[in-house]
Write a structure and sequence with these properties.
binds adenosine-5'-triphosphate, ATP-binding, 18% strand, 24 strands, 3'-5' DNA helicase activity, six-stranded parallel β-sheet, Rossmann fold, 28 helices, eight-stranded mixed β-sheet, DNA_helicase_UvrD/REP, ATP binding
Length: 704
């Protein structure tokens, strides 16, 4: 690699600066043209936009600066949204220009598209923009040709357009450090694997929020980001290999490539907990994309109406299969059924529900049966509404509505003439008042699922997982609008939970990412089991591996790699940079241990330090020992930028810290068992630059 320093007399730097200034001028012109086109009603917004975008610096150097940058981008997006209803295509262009004005591009590739033809420069940025003749000024990082940058391969390389492979010759791959219209430096890469921007990005300290990795996506990561759209993609990556980052880049990629048909609300993202959800929530907005529907298993279960039950983490696949098998001969009893009641009124009696069920029970329990019964109940409800419209009391009520109520209900004022009109308007009143009853029928409120399930399983209660699965036996599928479902930390799900997700989202494509070595609870699915479940539900499963750690220094990577199987260990790597040797100490005396722990906490070093305890109980104990100087992170907390936090391993999932202190590395907490091994691997691998391991008593044999 030739790293070219910032030199005043460097002709390449001067030429690139001139190009940047020209592009910047174009961008300003495009922005001004669009904004002056926009409705004069928005004059205030226009000026705000110009003022704001001139002030914003795209600066991710420190956590504070990152936060400021992201907040500024969000404010800009809000101003742009003011225009939204009126000028969609202009607004989209404005959004792109505004993003590019912060950093017009981050790389350039020079490509010989055909032998003998002059080479072409392609500048790559977070968004794409063309000039007035539709010629690209900057191409979007997700466009086909940008693949040549991410392939990290000099000479002959290729990219695919609409499924067809195009071979080109890459003669130059140049990366830029640019802030607005200022080119600070550039790096020409001549050796495939080296990436100066990456190395400089990895030197930085922990930031409060995860950042987009658009400019430095590595080759193995790019295979996931740009993977063909397949039913299921399973990514197995070591700690810190960028799984979450790649997942978010993939969402941005899909939203771009399928922008005519895919919207963010058709993408569902499952994350481990609320702290993690907040940690990643600015990545997509900083790329100009909106966040997908983000949820945890717990919030998913609650949304489905199963929240009061045990979450079902110990439910076995055997139980679900038993539910499936025994439901084939199921005969619903009257007590399994429920009346439809709305606004305190019984609208369909149990006997009517029983009648509808008996009419179709010959089909056996399943989606066909459920659809037929549901339709029948909707019909019966409609008939009941017609009957109610003849009720004198309700008719009087309708005639007594004041003008506002009439307008709200009918969209106009009314003066019914004759019985027929009176009945018609009363029916509309009834429909509006009891509209929830149709929803109840759709949600299977007429069926006592718990009672049915308890009978089938001969047990006193159903877990959320069992309840959801039983409902799927009746309906076959759950969510019909979801097109992509992404599950991060998939190793923490049980087979039964995954069976529910696979079936609930049977029409969606899945991206599943995880690390088997980070399964911190007993009884979760192994990767072969995950693959098997989705092969059964979705036909095929493609798999990718990520084997390089970008988070942790080589010393820390070596420490946690020592905990995995020998053959895997040999393949793990860390991107080289300076590191500090881990500190590992065991103390026979409690007082000595506490002294060392307090010393570690009082001199944490730069950035954010986390004391990661193995369980919630240990968090409570440590919190008492360490006092108020150390803040405990729970579900509602945001991570601070610097200082020391105390949290459980469960809460630390997916997060990272400059310095990790493992305060309970004694044999009794981390014995030589596969589970303890994975827990320790997870705790250690949260560290970027420094690790301190302390044991009260004999040190865990895992680090012996
Ligand atoms: N290509 C890249 N360029 C720059 N930084 C990267 C790159 N890939 C990953 N990183 C950084 O490495 C760190 C780890 O990334 P991420 O959290 O996505 O990994 P992960 O595989 O999900 O981790 P884990 O499974 O251990 O929670 C983050 O700080 C991320 O920004």
């Amino acid at each position: 690699m030739d790293t070219t320093p910032n030199q005043h007399d460097d002709p390449i730097l001067a030429k690139e600066q001139a190009h940047l200034s020209e592009v910047y001028g174009w961008l300003l012109k495009i922005r001004d043209n669009i904004t002056s086109d926009l409705d004069s009603n928005h004059a205030g917004a226009r000026q705000d936009l110009i003022d704001m975008s001139e002030e914003v610096r795209l600066n991710f150097n420190s956590s504070d600066e990152t936060m400021e940058t992201l907040a500024a981008i969000e404010t800009l997006n809000n101003i742009i949204d003011v225009y939204n209803q009126y000028h969609d295509s202009n607004v989209d262009k404005l959004r792109r220009v505004t993003l590019l004005l912060m950093q017009p591009y981050f790389a350039k590739v020079t490509l010989e598209m055909r032998p003998g033809r002059p080479a072409r420069d392609v500048y790559i940025g977070t968004a794409g923009i063309t000039d007035e003749h539709s010629r690209p000024i900057v191409v979007d990082w997700r466009s086909p040709v940008a693949e040549t940058y991410y392939n990290q391969q000099m000479g002959p390389t290729s990219y695919s357009v609409d499924g067809r492979e195009r071979t080109v010759n890459l003669t130059l791959r140049r990366q830029f450090d640019i802030v607005r219209d200022q080119l600070n430096s550039y790096f020409d890469t001549s050796v495939a694997i080296e990436d100066s921007l990456l190395l400089s990005a990895l030197k930085s300290h922990h930031s409060e929020k995860l950042k987009a990795i658009t400019a430095t996506i590595q080759r193995e990561q790019n295979e996931v980001v740009r993977h063909d759209d397949v039913p299921v993609l399973l990514v197995n990556g070591i700690a810190g290999s960028g799984k979450t980052s790649v997942l978010l880049q993939r969402i941005a990629y899909l939203l771009y490539r399928k922008r005519k048909t895919l919207s963010e609300d058709q993408v569902w993202l499952f994350t481990p907990n609320a702290v993690f959800e907040r940690y990643i929530d600015t990545v997509l907005p900083s790329m100009g994309e909106a966040n997908p529907q983000t949820l945890t298993w717990k919030s998913f279960v609650a949304e489905q109406g199963a929240g009061e039950r045990d979450l079902g983490r110990s439910t076995s696949t055997k139980t679900l299969r038993h539910l499936e098998d025994s439901s084939r001969d199921l005969v619903l009893e009257p007590d399994d059924l429920r009346e439809i009641r709305c606004e305190g009124e019984v609208l369909l009696k149990v006997s009517q529900v029983v009648g509808a069920v008996r009419k179709f029970e010959r089909f056996g329990v399943g989606p066909r049966f459920t659809a037929l019964v549901t339709d029948e109940l909707h019909d019966r409800l409609d008939r009941r509404f017609t009957q109610m419209a003849k009720d004198e009391g309700l008719q009087e009520e309708m005639l007594g509505l004041d003008v506002d109520q009439q307008v709200e209900l009918f969209g106009e004022t009314i003066s019914p003439e004759g019985d027929a009109e009176t009945v018609t308007y009363t029916r509309r009143l009834v429909e509006s008042r009891f509209s929830g009853a149709h929803d109840q029928i759709e949600r299977l409120a007429w069926l006592r699922l718990d009672r049915v399930g308890m009978r089938l399983l001969s047990q006193p209660a159903l877990s959320a997982t069992e309840w959801l699965y039983l409902r799927l036996i009746f309906t076959d599928t759950g969510e019909k609008t979801a097109r992509f479902v992404m599950v991060d930390e998939v190793q923490d799900y049980t087979e039964a939970q995954l069976m529910v997700l696979a079936r609930y989202f049977s029409r969606a494509h899945f991206l599943l990412l995880g690390d088997e070595n980070q399964a911190i609870s007993e009884g979760t699915a192994t990767f072969p089991q995950v693959a098997e479940i989705f092969r059964e539900s979705h036909g095929s499963v493609d798999e990718c591996r990520l084997l390089t750690s970008y988070r942790s220094s080589p010393e820390i990577t070596a420490l946690f790699a020592g905990l995995v199987k020998h053959d895997e260990r040999l393949r793990l790597a860390s991107v080289q940079r300076e590191g500090v040797k881990p500190t590992i100490q065991a103390f026979a005396e409690r007082d000595d241990y506490l002294r060392a722990l307090r010393a570690a906490v009082s001199e944490p070093g730069a950035g954010l330090t986390a004391v990661i305890a193995q369980s919630d109980a240990r968090v409570s104990w440590l919190s008492k020992q360490l006092g108020e100087g150390v803040c405990v992170v729970d579900h509602d907390s945001d991570l601070p930028v610097t200082g020391v936090v105390l949290l459980s391993l469960r809460m630390a999932k997916g997060l990272e810290f400059d310095h990790v202190i493992v305060p309970d590395a004694q044999a009794e907490v981390y014995p030589d068992t596969p589970l303890a091994r994975r827990q320790l691997y997870t705790a250690l691998s949260r560290a970027m630059h420094r690790v301190t391991v302390l044991a009260q008593g004999a040190l865990t044999p895992l680090l012996g």
